[in-house]
Amino acid sequence: MDQKNFFEKYGKRLAREGWLRSLVCGGTVGFGACFAVAVASWMLELNGLLFPLSALAVVTAVAAVLFYWLHFRPTVWSCARRMDSLGLEERMVTMLDLDGDPSCIAKLQREDAKMAAGSILPEQIKIRISKISIALFFVFAAASAAMTTVSAMASLGLLPTGSALMDEIVSQEPEKYIAVTYLVEEGGYIEGESDQLVLLGGTAEPVIAVAEEGYVFDSWDDGNARPGRTDSNIIQDVVYIAIFVPLEDDPDMSDEMPSDFGEPMGGGGPPGSQQGQSGESSTGQGSEESGTDGTGPMGSGKYDDWNQIIDGKTYYRTELEQYRDELLERLENDEELTEEEKAFIRAYLNIV
C-alpha cells in the first residue's frame, strides 16, 4: 500500500499545524535572542534598535525551520496516531504495523482501516498548539520589546547606558552607620533615644539626662555640663555616660550655709523662732513682714531642697518659673525649630 498517498491529505493538515508550532517556538527563541542582544547593546553603547531587531529576524527564521524539520514535521505514523485519536481505535496504527503482511487477516484489517478512514475528513483534525508555548512566546516578546526600547532610548541619549549606570553603582560607597549610645550609672535616666544609629558624619537625635528624686545631674563623662545634648559630626562609635550625684554630695549644696539661715534650734525653743527677726515671741510662727511661715527660707536654720533657695537670700522658684515661661513663649515663636524639637525642649523645661 502506498502509505504516503493515503495519508497525504491528512499530512497537509498536520504540516500546517507543524509550521505554526515551529513559528511559535522559533519566535520564542528569537525574542530571547533579541532580549540578549538588546542588553548587550545597552551595556556596550551600540545601536539599540538595529542589532536587536536583526537578531530577532535571523534567529526566529533559523529556529523555526529547525523546529519543523527536527520535531514538528508530520510523518505517516504521526498522521495515523492523530486519526486514531478521532475514534478509529488504533486501526491506522495497526494497519501500518501489518503493512506488507500477505495474510488474509492483515488484508482484512487494512480494508477495514481504509473504510474507517473514509469517514474522517482532514478538517476534523484540529490544529493544536501548547498553551505553555503561547505563554512563553508572549512573555519573551514583552521582555524583548521592553529591553529593546530601553536600549534604543539609551543610544539616543534619553536614558543612561548600562556601562554608565554600572560605573555609577560601583563608584558609590555603601552608607556607613555609626553607633551612638547614651548611658547612666545611677540616679537618673535618659529622656530620648539612648541607642542610635547615625550616618557617618551625621547628627544624633537630641537627648536629656534627667535626675531622679534625691539626685542632681553633675555632667557627662566627656565633660559636657549640660544635661541636654545633640551630638553632630559623628565619625566613630561612641558612648556617653551621664553622671548624677546625691543632693548631699553636690558641691553647690554642700557649701557652708549663709549666716542668714541661722542655727538650728537644739531644743532651747520651738523651731522657727529667731531673735531680732520678727519681734514675736518664740512661737514658731513667722512674721507677716518677713513673708515666712516658720518653715520657709528665713524661718528655721534647716535647709529644704524643695524651696529652691540657692544663696540664702533669693527665693528662686518664682524667678525660675518666669524664666521658663519666657523661654516657652520664645520657643513657640521660633520658626527654625521643628515641632519634634520644640516638644523635646518643652519637655526638658517642664522637668526643670
Description:
This protein has helices spanning 3-6, 8-44, 50-72, 76-88, 91-97, 104-117, 131-155, 162-171, 251-254, 316-333, 339-351, and strands at residues 177-184, 188-191, 195-199, 207-211, 215-220, 228-229, 238-246. The longest helix is centred in the first third of the chain and has 37 residues, at 8-44. The radius of gyration is 49 Å and the shape is elongated. 48% of the residues lie in helices and 11% in strands. The termini are far apart. The strands form two sheets. The protein has a four-stranded mixed beta sheet, with no helix packed on it. The chain has a three-stranded antiparallel beta sheet with strand order 2-4-6, with helices on one face. With 352 residues, the protein is α+β, with helices and mostly antiparallel strands.
Chart the SSEs and their pairings.
Layout: H1 3-6, H2 8-44, H3 50-72, H4 76-88, H5 91-97, H6 104-117, H7 131-155, H8 162-171, E1 177-184, E2 188-191, E3 195-199, E4 207-211, E5 215-220, E6 228-229, E7 238-246, H9 251-254, H10 316-333, H11 339-351
Parallel strand pairs: 1-7
Antiparallel strand pairs: 1-3, 2-4, 4-6, 5-7
Radius of gyration: 49 Å
Strand content: 5-15%
Mean pLDDT: 77
Considering DSSP H and I runs of 4 or more, what fraction of the residues is helical? 40-55%
Largest sheet: 4 strands, mixed
Spans of 5+ residues with little confidence (pLDDT < 50)? 253-306
State the separation between the terminal residues, measured CA to CA. 112 Å
Bulk shape: elongated
User: Could you give the order of strands across the largest sheet?
Assistant: 3-1-7-5
Number of helical runs? Answer: 11
Total count of strands: 7
- Structural class assignment: alpha+beta
Please write the string of helix (H) and strand (E) elements: HHHHHHHHEEEEEEEHHH
